[in-house]
Write a structure and sequence with these properties.
16% strand; alpha/beta; binds SN-glycerol-3-phosphate; TIM Barrel; 8-stranded parallel β-sheet
Length: 221
């Protein structure tokens, strides 16, 4: 079970967060963070990072295939074997079909993993909630990687996503992401009814990791 509120860091495929630098980023988060954090390294780094940290490690993506004749896919069972605690599903930079989202949410339940389904607007957030994941992460694609956070630029849509998700399934927690960079962004996200944030560039590309980690945490209660 992932404690909330939570700050989830998607390492994506930035030079700053793969291989050795991904390990260093994880060490820094573990060293300076006091709240609940989750890290999502690139697939090739997952096993090593799981073995080197106490932080919960999630996959960024897993393919919806059963063991067998598939090429170039990441098998769910193989990811489970690395020791991950959960996975992002349907990130807007790696979208999948509806049946694949359902397949992965179900597999997560069977294996006791935390599922985080990403959605691009409040309506798709509600649709994702109908599949019963642990989290829905609302991220407007146009704000991803930018300087303005979703909680500042689109507060009404974050609140709407929370309302719509809870109306479908009150047990699903909502995160928001895109452009989250500081404590104020985190604070606003929580005030709007979310239970955490999903972020990448604001931390991964930061020069001074310690100060950004502390700054982000200043928005936690
Ligand atoms: O999954 C996190 C994400 O897409 C947001 O990215 O760089 O805007 O924090 P970023």
């Amino acid at each position: 079970m992932i404690s909330k509120p939570v700050i989830m860091v998607n390492y994506k495929t930035y030079n700053e967060s793969v291989g050795k630098r991904g390990l260093e980023l994880t060490v820094n988060i573990e060293k300076y963070a006091k709240g609940n954090w989750v890290v999502c390294p690139q697939a090739v780094d997952v096993r090593e990072i799981v073995g080197s940290t106490k932080l919960p490690v999630f996959a960024q993506h897993i393919d919806a295939v059963e063991p067998g004749s598939h090429t170039g896919h990441t098998l769910f069972e193989a990811m489970v074997d690395t020791g991950i605690k959960g996975t992002l599903i349907n990130h807007s930079e790696n979208t999948i079909e509806l049946w694949q989202i359902e397949f992965l949410v179900k597999k997560c339940k069977v294996e006791g993993l935390t599922s985080v389904v990403c959605a691009n607007n409040p309506v798709t957030s509600a649709a994702a909630a109908a599949l019963g994941p642990d989290f829905v992460a609302y991220e407007p694609p146009e704000l991803i990687g930018g300087d303005i956070s979703v909680s500042t630029a689109k507060p009404e849509l974050v609140a709407e996503a929370v309302r719509k998700v809870k109306a479908i399934n009150p047990n699903v927690s909502v995160l928001c992401g895109a452009g989250v960079k500081n404590g104020e962004d985190v604070k606003r996200a929580l005030e709007l009814g979310t239970e955490g944030v999903l972020l990448a560039s604001g931390l991964v590309k930061a020069k001074d990791l310690e100060s950004v980690i502390r700054e982000l945490e200043s928005g936690l209660p």
